[in-house]
Design a protein that fits this description.
globular, 10-stranded antiparallel sheet, mainly beta
């Protein structure tokens, strides 16, 4: 099922990203840079290991994981989190936990595009990517 996500994706729209970053505790300067970035997301698989690379002029990050297994992650805004990614109803659902806080990142395919919803404490950001 993860195979459907494999490929290179380019950001085409973003809603409420600044408010989401603010809820995460990201400072003003980093929010401004993050808001200007138009990242590419490259998703690949090797066996049962999924890798998600995010590349932009602001920062490059990569995570590799097995579905359902917790792993340590350093986010683009330098948070040290414990993450787990599961497959739920065709969506890749990632939960990040750190310092008693939690955020959810849900990736799903809609009409050939990857729709990514970020949620924390009622603040929701939606970013849409198209396959390159």
């Amino acid at each position: 099922m993860c195979n459907r996500f494999v490929g290179t994706w380019k950001l085409i729209s973003s809603e409420n990203f600044d408010d989401y970053m603010k809820e995460l505790g990201v400072g003003l300067a980093a929010r401004k840079l993050g808001g200007l970035a138009r990242p590419d997301v490259i998703i690949s698989m090797k066996g049962d290991i999924v890798t998600i690379r995010t590349e932009s002029t602001f920062k490059n990050t990569a995570i590799s994981f097995k579905l359902g297994q917790q792993f340590d992650e350093t986010t683009a805004d330098d948070r040290k989190v414990r993450s787990v990614v599961t497959l739920e109803k065709g969506s890749l659902v990632q939960v990040q936990k750190w310092n008693g806080k939690e955020t959810t990142i849900k990736r799903r395919l809609v009409d050939g595009k990857m729709v990514v919803e970020y949620a924390m404490k009622g603040v929701v950001c939606t970013r849409v990517y198209e396959r390159v």
